[in-house]
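Input structure tokens:
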């Protein structure tokens, strides 16, 4: 299993628009990616505009599929104007 934590910096005044785009993306992921085990957006309680996406994938193929989907690419383009910096992505290996 592969975990991903994506830290996203969003302009605080654009948070509602960002969340709407992400919610639509998450629905596509859940509907079309059986190898995705979790895809949850979370918002910082202490830092305005800081979000973390908590992701779990069955394997490397599932992770690659996710990044290659047209809806993922389209959502990234839609979110671009709402961002306040580059995403920080951390990849994790499950301990079993």
């Amino acid at each position: 299993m592969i975990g991903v934590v994506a830290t996203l910096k969003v302009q605080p005044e654009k948070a509602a628009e960002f969340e709407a785009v992400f919610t639509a993306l998450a629905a596509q992921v859940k509907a079309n990616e059986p190898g995705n085990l979790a895809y949850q957006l979370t918002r910082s309680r202490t830092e305005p505009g800081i979000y973390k996406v908590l992701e779990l994938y069955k394997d490397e193929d599932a992770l690659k599929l996710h990044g290659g989907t047209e809806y993922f690419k389209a959502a990234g383009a839609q979110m671009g104007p709402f961002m306040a910096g580059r995403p920080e992505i951390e990849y994790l290996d499950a301990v079993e």
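The longest helix spans residues 15-32. The chain has a mean pLDDT of 96.
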